[in-house]
Amino acid sequence: MPPLDYHHQDTWPNGFGQQQSPIDLHETTAADTSTLTVLAPWLADQEIDDHVTIRLAGHGLTQIDQTQWHFIQAHLHVPAEHQTVNQRAAEWHFVHQSAIGALCVVAVLLPLGNAAPVMDSVLDHFVARSAQPVAMQLDSLLPPKGTVYRYLGSLTTPPLTEGVTWYVIDQTAITISPQQLHRFQQLFPDNHRKLQARNDRPVLRGPFLKGSK
Question: From start to end residue, where is composition biased (Basic and acidic residues) (predicted)?
Fold first, then answer.
């Protein structure tokens, strides 16, 4: 499978088009505090070179407000795909699925700062064109608080499936170091999708809190 061509994104197969991601998150509607609680740890058991990014497949259980989601995989985009008033260096995507197959992506926007130990483990275990067994707990990459943006969108790589619930957390507690950023970009120089048309979709913005069981 050839790498995804981020320089010619207009050639990507997309049979949808009206609710695509990522989007600019500047214009928002105020919302109440939203709480995300990790009910079962996000445990990655396989690290995969999927030609687009480093994918960490695993399992876990998350409750967002009153809804439960199963964690299935995580991956990183550099630079960050969503835009807020703050330009961030990278963006973690923690992909979840409901019991009936709906998708939710919890995104964490990362500023430059200190190295996150989990990111060092991810980079150290990476083997190109391969899948490796690993044992990593990823919910340490969730901040204790921040600002969350919620909207309805799509996956940001083909098949660009729509109907995805986005839960984008902007925060400053979890960071990525310049060295970690450089190591990742040596593997994947630029894997962010350009901003998509908002098409009048509402975006809810409110305080984020990480809950406890």
Answer: 1-10
d(CA 50, CA 63): 28
Q: Where are the strands (E) in the chain, listed by range? A: 29-30, 34-49, 54-64, 67-77, 90-97, 103-110, 131-137, 145-154, 162-170, 204-211
Indicate the domain borders of the chain. Answer: 17-164+171-211
Cβ(88)–Cβ(170) under 8 Å? yes
Q: Nearest CA to 90 among 182, 200, 206?
A: 182
Amino acid at 61: L
| pTM for the predicted model, two decimal places | 0.96
| Whether pLDDT at 115 is above 80 | yes
The band of 33, judged by pLDDT with boundaries at 50, 70 and 90, is very high
**Length of the chain as a residue count:** 213
User: Cα–Cα distance between 119 and 182 in angstroms, integer?
Assistant: 12
